[in-house]
Design brief:
Blueprint (H helix, E strand, L loop, with lengths): L5 H4 L2 H4 L2 H4 L8 E2 L5 E4 L2 E5 L12 H14 L15 H13 L4 E5 L2 H12 L5 E5 L4 H8 L5 E4 L4 H18 L3 E6 L11 H6 L7 E5 L14 H5 L7 E5 L9 E5 L1 H8 L3 H4 L6 H16 L2 H19 L12 E6 L2 H14 L2 E2 L1 E3 L8 E6 L7 H19 L14
Parallel strand pairs: 3-12, 5-6, 5-7, 7-8, 8-9
Antiparallel strand pairs: 1-2, 2-3, 4-10, 9-10, 11-14, 13-14
Helix pairs in contact: 4-13, 5-13, 6-7, 14-16, 15-16
The protein binds pyridoxal-5'-phosphate (PLP).
Pyridoxal-5'-phosphate (PLP) binds next to α6.
Length: 415
Amino acid sequence: MDLFDKCTVNLGPLGKYADQAEGYFMFPKLEGEISNRMIFHGKERLIWSLNNYLGLANHPEVRKADAEGAAQFGMAYPMGARMMSGQTKFHEQLENELAAYVKREHAYLLNYGYQGMLSIINSIVDRKDVIVYDSEAHACIIDGMRLHFGKRFVYPHNNIENLETQLKRATRLTEQTGGGILVITEGVYGMSGDLGKLDQIVALKSKYNFRLLVDDAHGFGTMGPTGAGTDEHFGVQKEVDLYFGTFAKSMAGIGGFVAGDYKVIKYLMYNMRSQIFAKSLPMPMVLGALKRLELIRTQPEHRENLWKIVHALQNGLKEAGLDIGNTQSPVTPVMLNGGVGEATQITYDLRENYNIFCSIVSYPVVPKGVILLRLIPTAVHTLEDVSYTINAFKEVKHKLEQKAYSTEMADIENV
Ligand SMILES: Cc1ncc(COP(=O)(O)O)c(C=O)c1O
């Protein structure tokens, strides 16, 4: 059999819908300026699916900093990995400013959040160590653990009682191996919007000896009194040993960082393979990130606008009888009952008849029979956007209950 035979026979759990869904449900093209309104399939739509939480993607000062960075340095500079030939004072400045913002001794830049997380896990644990992690951990955490030669124990999502059981198991094991324990959670869970129970997790430190790594991709810039993250929200910055953030969301850029005690970050700098064996972040990204961080720190109005929209949207949806689960963050899931066919029909209806573009998640990512429509409010949405959307969702729910949507996948051939 040829290795590539599988590529046409079985495209995998997501690829199996490629023929019907590509270009519409999957790999859709959003065109025009990044904003609350963009062009999809030739028409303007109200966009609720971009993690541009603070609306910085198109902020004039951000655009200017990005352009000036590119004009001055090009995209190539610096050449090589940080350790070899890719170090600059601007990379260091960004790290210093990030560390100060999240109140840690030191920070280190990551070229991508995903690869960075993988590499943090890979470099900080060895075969004697045990990882204990939440069952809803993001793919980058799961993939990082795939590189781990030692044991790993999972606890059901946010179940602190079970986390304690896993910590007991891990403690027994590490007493034999002589290793340590790493607990990994997210600050904000990106699908459901609920928070990792950081306060309860750190409380367990008085009984068990472990280190805590928090992936705060969605919390950085959005959560806490100064936007410094979910650990700031809970008042536990000192107890979170390693804080991870990405630039892909609130920072509306690319890259990420990890922050913690100097000695630990220093160890990561000399051991993280994703950074040792990969080219340094290009200068426009670094200068652009410095500008974004400055705006996040000095212009709280972006976060205030975001939360105004979040509260209006989430309260309005709840009042309209929609189930938005347990979210405590800007991430706003709307849960409906139905199969994959109904989910695609609803998305199609929202996009074509209401001109609302949001992301759709169905089985197998969520349990069978659940449709999750995910709305990401941002600082550049308006209260009119919110009320229009709440009405549309109310109507869609009603139509679903009246069995107006077929259980077949939407026929999008003629769109
Ligand atoms: C929880 C979480 N961790 C990590 C990442 C990966 O970050 P990046 O997009 O910077 O690679 C994401 C998604 O972007 C995420 O949602």
